[in-house]
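To: structure desk
From: M.T.
Subject: fold request, one chain
Message: Could you run this one when you get a chance? Sequence is below, nothing fancy, just the single chain.
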Amino acid sequence: MIVNNSNFRLKDIPNFHPELEYYERVSFWKEEKRKCIEGYWSSGKWMPGPLYYYINFHNIQFEDDSSVAQAFGLPFLRDIDWELFLLYEECRGFSGFTNDTKTTCDRRYGPEKELSIKLKRITEAEANSMEYVPATVGVKVIIVAVVAPDVETDPVILLVR
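Reply: Done. Structure tokens follow.
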């Protein structure tokens, strides 16, 4: 499925009057906060919340070939960002949507199926109703924390196939 990335990009942040447009401002930011936490659906595709935050609110420093900082701005939305943030959601324990009745990454339906049935966490009928798909098929995710004494940095996530 091909979806236009501009569907996920926030067009502009409205400039609300602090007193006269109080309720509009609060409702706008509540909705944006919800999208940053729960994710965002557009044209049948789901964007993870952290990716929505990253492309709409997280400014990065752009550099040219000489490695001299040129400007701050919003990052581009690339395929590697989609893959990285979807894998990040899996690492956080995301295992599918509540209303998905066909597939799941929940280990109770896969490697822990027999134990889950025995401990009555799920019934036999529930165990056979879902197809188990491992969360990281063919991808090993390694999270490395880069620590330097005088540098603030975020963890670096390496994808190894």
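Reply (cont.): The CA atoms of residues 64 and 123 lie 58 Å apart. Let me know if you need anything else for the meeting.
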